[in-house]
Amino acid sequence: MKMNRVHGLPFNSIMNVTTSWNEGGVFIQKKAHTNSRLFRRQFPFHAFVGIGIIYLIVFSYIPMFGIIIAFKDYNISTGIEGIFTSSWAGLSHFKELINDYHFPSLVRNTLLLSLLKVIFSYPIPILFAIMLSEVRHVVFKRFVQTVSYLPHFVSWVVVTGIAYAFFSSGYGIFNELLLSLHVIKDPIQVLTDPDSFYALAVSTAIWKEAGWWTIIFLAALAGIDPALYEAAEMDGAGRLKRIIHITLPGLKGAAIVVLILTIGSILGGGLVGSNFEQSMLLGNALNVERSQIIQTYAFNVGLAQGRFSFATAIDFAQSVISLILIFSSNYIAKRVSGTGLF
Q1: Which residues of 54-69 are buried (b: 16+ CB within 10 A; e: fewer)?
Q2: pTM assigned to the model
């Protein structure tokens, strides 16, 4: 028995041709659709995709129907049924948010923290990927790459513990070192000073996530044809010129896609995210004027005061703003560079 593959057919009609001899010695051909066979062969890949789709449906799409409580006076004691039976409140929760005396400081803290993260965290993975691509020692390159993205797998609780051990005014290594070198006379209150919160949040976020995002840009660099570098080297182009004229244009597509995703999630912290975790864990009563953001306010109001409709209205408004930012940044990127996410 011999198996041949038929070429030139649409993907959904690909068939295998099975040839054999019958009992009378006549050569026959049997055609059988191979879609089911192809599906069985690719089942592990379909399973991975299916698990991801189920996860999104269960945890992202089904809970969306609860958004309607932002327009109702919902009480948790009425359970799931109350989501549909509660009285309508219109836009009263949104108006209350805008008139809340916390609103200006919440918007200021959220925007400033997010913008600082985008400004300082976005270029670092690109620069780090370019630097790694220029390293010729393979073992050293892999060691640095592994060490750089390991913090991504550390939870924010552990990162906060490290920050406390490092910057504590009583026993932190940072203050101990500066005091021993007579650089300062009194310990710096990094963890409680409101003016230090943004720098602390941005620096710890970069340390935790920059290495992980470098993988994206290293993958983009791997797609650049090595012949381009060889031709440029033969033409006398130095390392800096090869980076400017070959590496950076090769990173353009990945950089734009990551930038669009970053702007779309800017209210959550952008590329390095984690605004909520950092504000909850690094925030305290002494730096609350800088550490309280929209997400933590919604969390505290929703759970501590049981005002689920008001908290949902806050998150819904933030989601609408993020959606507008994604479409706007994608439109601008396509007009400027011709490359977009969709």
Answers
A1: eeeeeeeeeeeeeebb
A2: 0.74
